[in-house]
Amino acid sequence: MEGAQPISPEELWSEIEKYHDTLPESLRKELYSKILEYGLTREEALAVISEAVKRYLSSLVNPGEAVGTVAAQSIGEPATQMTLRTFHFAGVRELNVTLGLPRLIEVVDLRREPSTPMMEIHLEPEIAKDEEAALRIAREIELTTVENLCRSATIDYYESAVILELDPEMMENRGVTLDDLLRALEKVKGKKGSVEVSEDGSTVIIRLGTDDVIKLRRAYERILNQRVKGLKGVRHAIVKPIRNDKGELVEYVILTEGSNFQGVLSIPGVDPTRTRTNNIQEIYEVLGIEAARAAIIEEIKKVLDEHGLDVDYRHIMLVADAMTYTGKVRQVGRHGVAGEKESVLARASFEVTVKNLVEAALFGEEDPLRGVIENIIIGNRPIPLGTGSVKLKLRVASGAPKRGGA
Amino acid sequence: MPRKVNVLNHELVPKHVLLSREEAKKILRRLGLRKSELPWIYSTDPVARALGAKPGDVIMVIRKSPTAGEAVAFRVVVKG
What we know:
The complex is a heterodimer.
Chain A: H1 9-17, H2 25-38, H3 42-58, H4 67-79, H5 100-109, E1 118-121, H6 131-141, E2 144-145, E3 150-156, E4 161-166, H7 168-174, H8 178-188, E5 194-197, E6 203-207, H9 213-225, E7 227-229, E8 236-243, E9 249-257, H10 261-265, E10 276-277, H11 280-287, H12 289-306, H13 313-324, E11 332-333, E12 336-337, H14 344-350, H15 353-362, H16 372-378
Antiparallel strand pairs in A: 1-9, 1-10, 2-7, 3-4, 4-6, 5-6, 8-9, 11-12
Helix pairs in contact in A: 1-2, 4-13, 5-12, 11-12, 12-13, 14-15
Chain B: E1 15-18, H1 21-31, E2 40-42, H2 46-51, E3 58-65, E4 69-78
Parallel strand pairs in B: 2-4
Antiparallel strand pairs in B: 1-3, 3-4
C-alpha cells in the first residue's frame, strides 16, 4: 500500500457511525482515535471496523445465559474476602463510616437508614474556597437542641418549672443568641407555661403551670429535645478542605454525621447538583429511581474498590437494575429480590418445609417449575435457561420412524 | 426561605427525555417489546414530575456508563 493516503477523520467517523446502533459509544470513539493514531488507509480502516464489529457481536452474552447467577457468584466470591469488621475512617476527625461487608449488606438490604448516615455537602462555586462561608453553613445545618446549650437542666417539682443553666461558650460556638433560644422555647412551653430569664441571663426558668409530675417529666424531655436551629437528623458537621495532588486547595466540603438530603439541598449556598448522601432511600425520594440506581452502583463499587476487589461493572449494574426496574427500590435480602414470586418447592426446600407447603396448598399456589431447585426435586429435566430456554416443536413427517418420548 | 431545587441538574440523575407517542411507538417496534415489558417509573417520581410525564408515557434515559460510554434505557410511566 505504498503511497496510499490515510483515511480522513470525517470519512472515518461516517464509516464508524454506520454502526451507531450496533457498537456502543465508547467502542466507536476508541476505534476512531486508534485508527487515526495509526494512520490507516481507507481499506485498512474498513477492515479493522468490520473485524471490531464481528468480535463485538461474538462477545455479547448469549440469549438465555444465566446472567443473574454469574453476577451473584462474581460479587459473592470476592465479598467473602472482605473483613467483617466495621472500619473507622482514618484522617477525618470524629467521623466514622461503615465500610466493608456490613456496608455492602446495608446497601442491598436497603435499610431505611444506614448505620452511619452521612452527607458530603459541596458549596456553590462562588463560595467553595471560602472557609468562613463553609463554617457558617456547617453551623447552620448542624442540629442544635436546647440540651446542647445547657450546662445543666433540672426539674423544680416545688415550683413546677424546668430550670436551664445556660452554657454561654456553647451558645457562642453554635452561633445561637438568647433570643433564638427563647423563640424555640416559646414553642414547647405549652399554653399555660411561661418563660423567664434571670437578670444576668445565665439561667432560664420555664414555668409549666401544671403540678402533674408525669406531665412535668414529659415537658422536660420535650424541652431538651426542642430544635433551636439546624436540620433534623444532622448530628454533626465538619468542614474539610479538598486538595489536589499538588496540595493546592480545590474546595471546602462539609461532611456530616446524619443525613437530611431534602433539607440540605434547599439551603442557600449549597450546591444542589453535587451534594451527596449515602442514604439510598433518601436519594430515591428526592431524586428519583434513576438516581437511586446510580447511587446503588456507586456505593457497591466504592465498597469493593476499598478492598481492592475487581468486580466487573456489569455485574453491579445488573444488581442495581434488578433492584430498581419496578420503579421502586426493592431490597435484596436473604430470600432474593423482595416481592419476586419464588417457587413453592424452592421455598419449602429452604426453610420451614411443612408450613410452606401447607400454606401454598391453602392458597392454591401454582408452581411453574422454572427454577433449578424445583426441577431437581421433581427429577432431571432441562430448566428454562440457556439451551433449555428453547422449546422445539417437531412435526412428525408421515415417513419418519415413530419413537417414544425421549 | 427554602428554595426550589431542580432535580434534573443533579449529578446522580442521568438525562431523561420524555418521548412523544410516535417516538415511543417507533422505539418499541425496534426493540420488539410491548410497553408493559419496559421497566417502570412512577408518575410520582421526582424526575417524572419535573418532566410532566403522564402514566403511559415512555421516558428515554441516557445513562453514562464506564463500559459503553453512553447507554440508553427506557422506562414506562406508571401511576403511582
